[in-house]
Amino acid sequence: MSEGLLSGLQYGGYGLELVLLIVLLHRGYLRPLRSLCIFVGALLAIDAGVRPLIIRFYGETSSAYYNLYWVTDLILVLASFALICAFFRRACLQHRGVWKTIRPALTIVLVLELGISTATFLQGYHKHLLFTRFIYGFSQNLYFTCVVLNTVLYLMLQWFKDRDQLLHLLVCGLGIQYAGPAAAAALSCLTRSKAVGELFGYLSPVCGVLMLGIWVYAVMRQPRTAVRPVPA
Amino acid sequence: MLSVTILVISASLFLFYLQAACERILRRPFEDPLPDPIVDANRLEFPFIRRALEEYDAPVDYARFRVQLMCDYLALIYLLRNAANHHRRLSGEERTLAVYFRALSGLLALCHLSGLTERPLLLKMTSVLEYFANVLGERIKRVRFGHLTASEYLMSL
Q1: Burial state string for B73-94 with b = 16 or more CB within 10 A and e = fewer than 16
Q2: Pick from A169, A176, A217: CB nearest B18
Q3: Whole-structure pTM over 0.90, yes or no?
């Protein structure tokens, strides 16, 4: 039953990723939402293409899959950071001055993350721990940074009184995807019980499906509003 | 301590974003907002509750308002499933908003028990019902009953 539910969520997620990508391309969002198209494309390629292919050829317990899993995980976290940056840019199209401040701030945040993760890694350097220590640590730090950045972005949209409904829904979807697993991870860390661990296993794909569902709704049902940048 | 802080903040953010997404769905524009024939034909009470709370600043009659809103909700859900809907089921967004309405109803009971103000929650519940009525109106407008439009048909009942 639980295996079936997990598989259902997993394949439901793949289906939604495919539907979202098709809708984005069909409705001509390739240029205005290029970053979102790239992110969804990467998600689909990694989730439904690269990872299952490696499992099929090398097996789930192979080192090839182990290495690939962590590398692709890093790629996805970096892609979601880039997506948030693109959302910030879209939110600031009417406020060029704010973007001039935010852009270097985002770069500094990424450099700081890299620095902190590298310092933590160098404290106990072991080559065989490269993937577990550095990539896992860096991904986790960047993940929590994205939770904070997404909240800042949401508050910024409220402050601007932005009428871009599409962007609001995209940010809400991303927030659900970040906040749900973060809460489950914190609960798991607090209780260390098996039941909470199982809950974490379900909550992560549920949040993924919720995010994709909201994005599909946003792209399909919201009227397409062209946000024009203010001339410099 | 850090884990507790992260748990509280993340769980709050999760619920907040879910609520914000539902509120965004409710803001979808409609061609004919709040079709009167549907309200009249089904004797829906939510527009009067909203008017009483917003315009006349009437005191909240919790028991009566709650029953009236629940009756409207059940009627609208039935109509959404069965009126001019050949699938005979709710769409994804309607189901999401139905869950949202139920959650608001639970929160309303909690607010009443703890003595907090119920007015904002009641207004949110009326906006969900208004959305349902608008979807129904939009759907029924596409259907014709002989030489009558749906609204003319409903008024003639």
Answers
A1: bebbbebbeeeebeeeebeebb
A2: A176
A3: no
DSSP assignment letter at A60: T
CB contact under 8 Å between B29 and A223, yes or no, is yes
Q: Which residues of A touch B1 (CB under 8 A)?
A: none
Residue A228 within a domain? no
ipTM reported for the complex surpasses 0.90: no
| Predicted confidence (pLDDT) per residue in A6-52, tens digit | 888 889 999 999 999 999 999 888 888 899 999 999 999 998 889 99
Q: Which of B112, B13, B85 is nearest to A207 (CA)?
A: B13
> Touching check for A172 and chain B: CB below 8 Å?
yes
Residues in chain A closer than 8 A to B4 (CB atoms): 186, 190
B135-153: pLDDT as tens digits: 988 887 777 666 666 666 6
d(CA A78, CA A175): 16
Closest Cα partner for A80 from A3, A136, A135, A146?
A146
Is the residue at A229 inside a domain? no
Please tell me whether residue B1 adopts helix, strand or coil conformation. coil
- Residue A149 in any domain: the answer is yes
**In this structure, is residue A232 part of a structural domain?**
no
Q: Is A128 exposed, middle or buried (0-12, 13-18, 19+ CB in 10 A)?
A: exposed
